Amino acid sequence: MFLGISSFTYGWAVGVPGHVPLDPLTAFDLIHKTIALNLKCVQIGDNLPLHKLDRHQRDDLKSIIFKNDLRLEVGARKLTTENLDRYISIAANFGSPLLRFVVDGVKYKPEANDIVTVIRNAMPDLKKAGITLGIENHDRFKASELATIMDSINDEQVGICLDCVNSLGAGEGLDHVTSVLLPYTVNLHIKDYTIRRLSHNMGFVVNGMPTGTGMIDVPALLDQLKVYDRCKSAILEQWVTPELTIAETILKEERWAMESLGYLQQLPHFHHNHSSVKDKV
């Protein structure tokens, strides 16, 4: 399995609504980070939408990726027929073996049967390009609903991008989600977290944590994934709690990324063709 980073490893550096840094991280910056970290896998998500790059920028990015023999995984949001077609073309152009999609978009929340129709119509293009489509568990759908969608499509080139935390938004914990969705999982988003009770005891708060310091038993999760042999990459993502300034938050985000990668690269589940982060710090 490949270990990689993504544009959501560095969400604050890319910029979130209302908090955009003066010098935001670009797709090119992310690729150079991947190379500097001696990693071979990188996922560019919908917070750095590749369709907004012009042809020359895409060609330049593709050249760097190919020259450094990187596995690029393309990510997108809003699973309409038009957007899926557009991103299949983009993924094919970059040689991306995986296309990860968040279903919902602004004012767009399709029903399960509509998702099945959109994906079925795109299957010939996915087959022709040799691209696996990974649908992310992103808040709204229960694990059982996503499993039903997968069963309806019933194709090895369509699966689940399993995020470790998102399904909390649907009221479901990781143990339940994995018990349902692991057989379909083609891509893993490793995002550690903690849940703590508020001081007044009237509720809980969920916060991100550096991987290996939170609630997720990452080695056990990776062991469970191996049984199904469908998941080819695990991508580090982060929910970094903000500091007083965006600059301080970005520095914290970088520290968390290095700590998390240092932990993950010691695990035996990943390809280890290069020196680890721990060797460099």
What does this structure look like?
The protein is α/β, with parallel strands linked by helices and 281 residues long. It has one domain (2-280): TIM Barrel. 39% of the residues lie in helices and 19% in strands. It is built from 10 helices and 10 strands. The chain has helices spanning 11-14, 27-36, 55-67, 81-94, 112-129, 143-153, 174-181, 218-226, 246-264, 277-280, and strands at 2-6, 41-44, 71-77, 98-102, 132-136, 158-163, 185-190, 193-197, 204-208, 233-236. An 8-stranded parallel beta barrel has the order 1-2-3-4-5-6-7-10, surrounded by 5 helices. Strands 8-9 form a two-stranded antiparallel ribbon. The protein is globular, with a radius of gyration of 18 Å. Mean pLDDT is 95; it is low at 273-281.
- Mean pLDDT over the residues: 95
Portion of residues within helices: 25-40%
- How many domain regions? 1
Low-confidence stretches: 273-281
State the helix count.
Answer: 10
Strand content: 15-25%
| String of helices and strands | EHHEHEHEHEHEHEEEHEHH
* Total beta strand runs: 10
CATH homology superfamily? Divalent-metal-dependent TIM barrel enzymes
Q: Enter the CATH topology name.
A: TIM Barrel
Strand order of the largest sheet: 1-2-3-4-5-6-7-10
- CATH classification class: Alpha Beta
Give the helix/strand class.
alpha/beta
Largest sheet: 8 strands, parallel, barrel
Q: What kind of assembly state do the chains in view correspond to?
A: single chain
What would the principal axes of the Cα set say about the shape? Answer: globular
- In CATH, the architecture is Alpha-Beta Barrel
Rg value: 18 Å
N-to-C CA distance: 24 Å
